[in-house]
Structures are given as structure tokens and as C-alpha cells.
């Protein structure tokens, strides 16, 4: 039996085991997927191999550590230095990133998105921003601190920390911070978030499975919003294709992965 896992801190909230096990079970694929709580990202590689894993997903805060742990990084992940999917290929650790395409899958119903404000500057922000730019979307990045903004400056994004933020009009604002994940915090001071929401058509949160304070505010303002569930489905679908080495049909994976969201 093949064994897969999701690594994170926190990880108890992760729906990935439900999603992937639903696919494996219904399609009779001999595999099992579990959660691994990992504090220290530098221990990722040794933990992966000591557990005898065939593949894994990586969640907050280890996606950049996962990039460092890889023997080879392929596709979009190589460009951004952020890995959310690991594959054991004959004892070599191969890294991929499926988050950005998962997010594009999630916002298909939002039309005419040309100008996005990204809240946060971590791994998810890097993945989404780089992918948006490939789609010729203008991106502004707002982060709590300055330290992580250099990457986005090099992509020619308008970049701000809370202390120097200059607001504009946006089609979509996306929360990629972990504020709201295990607390009731907003991704920026309330007054700033209020102004931002007054200047956007759509709001989205990468966090899933809960109504974050950010989405509650968007709802109160009658803004069309969505949480991170479809992004999760999109990235999971693409990761599962890698796990099973494309042996299962995409439509079947989608069907049974979606089914797990009904649980
Ligand atoms: P990282 O740890 O790489 O980045 C976290 C970011 O959040 C940093 O910019 C950090 O700012 C900011 N931040 C953390 N706490 C706060 C706070 N209290 N207030 C304001 N900003 C804060 O995380 P990831 O990019 O890996 O993940 C971010 C979120 O996206 C997580 O909640 C994760 O669960 C979710 N996610 C969901 C996916 C899905 O499929 N739905 C896929 C991928 C991620 P600073 O630089 O100042 O520290």
C-alpha cells in the first residue's frame, strides 16, 4: 500500500486526508493518506523518508522549507521557490506547486478580474501573484511587515506594508495570510480592511472550512466572496494526479474528491 501525508503546523484542520482518501477508496487505489504535525521544517525530508511516504502535501508554514528539501523542483514551483506537493521518485524528492492553478480554478466564476490586491507575502502569496502576472493581471501586495516584499518588488508589483499603504480600486482582494486560521484576527487593521472592502468587487480567502473575520466583514458589506474550499479542491485534484502518476481519470478524481466536501 502507498502512504501519503500532509505536513503542517497546525495540521489538525486539514481536509486533505478526507479528500485524497475518498479518491483512493472509491477508485480502489491501494493507498492511504494521513496528517503529520511538523514543527521544524528542516526535518521535513528525513521525516518524509522515515515514514516511507510515496508523496505528500505541505501546508503552512513549511512550503518554502519544502522547496529547500527537494532534490528536484519542477514546473511553476521552480519559478516561485514554493512547494506544496512532494513525490518520492525512486528515492529522490521531487517538488511541485499546485496552489496557484487551484486558485485560478476556484475563481473561474469571478468575471473580468484585471486588478487584484493580495493580502500577505508568504508562500501562497508568491504562488498566486506569479500566476496572476502570467495571466496579465495587475497585482498589488499588502503585508504586515516589509521583510518579505522584495520578491514582489522584483515582479514589478505595487508593494506596501501596513505603515505605507496607499489604497486604490480592485476587482478582487485575496487574503493569503494565516490571520483567521486559528484565531479571530483580520489580515490587517480593521479600519484598513474596511476601506479595502469598500474598494473591491469580490473578496476571497485562502482559508477554508470556517467563516474568517475577513469574510464576515465582506459578507456584511454584501460583497460576493468565497472561502478557500474550491482552491483546496483545485490544488488537491492536481496533487492527486501526481500521486497516482496520472493512472486515474481526472473526472473521477474530481467526482470523489468533491464528494468528500459533503462529509
Ligand atoms: P506563510 O506562513 O508562508 O505566510 C503567512 C503570511 O501571513 C505572511 O505574509 C505573514 O506576514 C502573514 N500573517 C501571519 N499572521 C498574520 C496576522 N496575524 N496578521 C496579518 N498577517 C499575518 O503561509 P502560507 O502562504 O503557506 O499560507 C497562508 C494561508 O493560506 C494559510 O491560512 C493556509 O491555510 C492558506 N492556504 C489555503 C490553501 C487552500 O487550498 N485553500 C492553499 C494554500 C494555503 P509576515 O510576513 O508579516 O509574517
Automatic annotation (TrEMBL):
It comes from the Bacteria. It comes from Sulfurimonas xiamenensis. Residues 6-86 form the Shikimate dehydrogenase substrate binding N-terminal domain. Shikimate binds at residues 14-16, 59, 84, 99, 208, 235. It is an enzyme of class 1 (oxidoreductase). Belongs to the shikimate dehydrogenase family. Its EC number is 1.1.1.25. Pfam families: Shikimate_DH, Shikimate_dh_N. GO terms for molecular function: NADP binding; shikimate 3-dehydrogenase (NADP+) activity. This is Shikimate dehydrogenase (NADP(+)). SUPFAM superfamilies: Aminoacid dehydrogenase-like, N-terminal domain, NAD(P)-binding Rossmann-fold domains.
Amino acid at each position: 500500500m502507498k502512504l501519503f501525508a500532509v505536513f503542517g503546523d497546525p495540521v489538525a484542520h486539514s481536509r486533505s486526508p478526507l479528500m485524497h482518501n475518498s479518491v483512493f477508496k472509491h477508485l480502489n487505489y491501494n493507498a492511504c493518506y494521513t496528517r503529520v504535525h511538523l514543527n521544524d521544517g528542516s526535518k521535513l525530508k528525513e521525516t518524509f523518508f522515515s515514514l516511507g511516504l510515496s508523496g505528500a502535501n505541505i501546508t503552512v508554514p513549511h512550503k518554502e522549507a519544502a522547496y529547500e528539501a527537494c532534490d528536484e523542483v519542477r514546473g511553476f514551483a521552480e519559478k516561485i521557490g514554493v512547494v506544496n506537493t512532494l513525490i518520492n521518485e525512486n528515492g529522490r524528492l521531487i517538488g511541485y506547486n499546485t496552489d496557484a492553478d487551484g486558485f485560478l480554478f476556484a475563481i473561474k466564476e469571478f468575471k473580468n478580474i484585471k486588478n487584484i490586491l493580495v493580502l500577505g507575502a508568504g508562500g501562497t502569496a508568491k504562488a498566486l501573484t506569479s500566476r496572476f502576472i502570467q495571466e496579465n493581471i495587475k497585482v498589488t501586495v499588502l503585508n504586515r511587515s516589509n521583510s518579505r516584499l522584495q520578491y514582489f518588488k522584483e515582479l514589478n508589483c505595487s508593494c506596501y506594508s501596513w505603515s505605507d499603504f496607499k489604497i486604490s480600486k480592485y476587482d478582487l482582494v485575496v487574503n493569503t495570510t494565516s490571520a483567521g486560521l486559528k484565531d479571530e484576527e483580520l489580515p490587517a487593521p480593521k479600519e484598513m480592511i474596511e476601506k479595502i472592502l469598500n474598494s473591491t468587487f469580490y473578496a476571497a480567502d485562502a482559508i477554508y472550512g470556517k467563516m474568517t473575520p475577513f469574510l464576515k466583514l465582506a459578507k456584511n458589506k454584501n460583497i460576493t466572496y468565497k472561502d478557500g474550499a474550491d482552491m483546496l479542491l483545485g490544488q488537491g485534484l492536481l496533487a492527486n494526479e501526481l500521486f497516482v502518476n496520472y493512472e486515474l481519470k481526472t473526472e473521477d478524481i474530481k467526482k470523489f474528491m468533491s464528494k468528500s466536501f459533503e462529509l
